[in-house]
Structure prediction request, 362 residues.
Amino acid sequence: MRVGILTGGGDCPGLNAVIRAVVRTLEIEGGDCRTVGVLDGFLGLITDRTRVLSGGAVSGILPRGGTILGSSNRDNPFDFDGMIDGEHVTGDVTDRVLATVKRNKLDALVVIGGDGTLSIADEFAELGVPVVGVPKTIDNDLGSTDQTFGFDTAVGVCTEAIDRIHTTAESHHRVMVVEVMGRDAGWIALHAGMAAGGDVILLPEIPFRYESIVDAVQARCARGKRFSIIVVAEGAAAEGGEQVFYRTVDTGFIKKRLGGIGHTVGLELERRVGLESRTTILGHVQRGGTPSSRDRILATRFGVCAARQVIAGNFRTMSSLRGSSVVAVPLGEAVSEPKRVDPQGELVSVARATGISFGNEG
Ligand code: F6P
Prediction:
């Protein structure tokens, strides 16, 4: 049996741990199974770029960030817009993908990706390709699994950064704004903000009002705390306002990108409160580097589960954490409802009980 494996979408810590787990499980439990790595996500299938992965090829990659296979978050074979062999090609290139699968004699394909990549994988399953999925994203916003790997590492990176910002905020009596990733879900902001003792947390799920943040910062001043830490998710927006994008163009392979709300919030608070403000945008620092031990283990469990589905011929499924168990669920669930922070949920309630403002009180 020959099994293709690819990583698609934005990378995250733990991808290599999945690849290693799939390759090793197929070797140890799959008999004569051979893994073929597809380079740069679906682009590798479109352009037929692969490399055979043996146990030796995945040795030493468990703690490495990124993906040894490369990734791409803009090469959808059903709606392609990019360069192939020096030529600009647009439209449906799925025939190229199917030809690569045939040429490489792939009996199955393991696709590691977020909602976008996994929905493309599901479309290929519909076309008859035997696919097994593995969910990943630092955003932790997939409804089909209780947690994605990469999230724990991102939260750890953000927590450490906010801890560091705390000390300089205190020295200079400033309002320090820390912007974290998370697109339309505030999980990273909520977890890191709580873990690092943020004073205000702004989430895409809870539109904020400046008056409310000002009240929170001034209440702290009244208690002798002349500094405040505001943790803002990149997708947060003021009530009646809009999300902030640093890249507003959305054509072809240039994609609109969130970012910059931290500066808007910082400057507005400086104007309204009279305390100096500084903003730090953590950006891709959150996605790079070595995975936490928790992410390495979750990624390994997901990889082993995916390889076992391949061996069992249980296709169009996806690894998923349900409670404390990793199980295979229908791949279609990957594109079901996204998982958002519940503004009335336990975590937000716990945060409020410890004095954290979400910028919507009063
Ligand atoms: O979905 C993961 C994510 O890191 C988001 O949090 C962020 O908005 C986006 O990817 C950034 O994508 P890119 O790497 O293309 O800038």
Q: What stands out?
A: Residues 154-288+342-353 form a domain with the Rossmann fold fold (CATH 3.40.50.460). The chain has two domains: 2-149+291-323, 154-288+342-353.
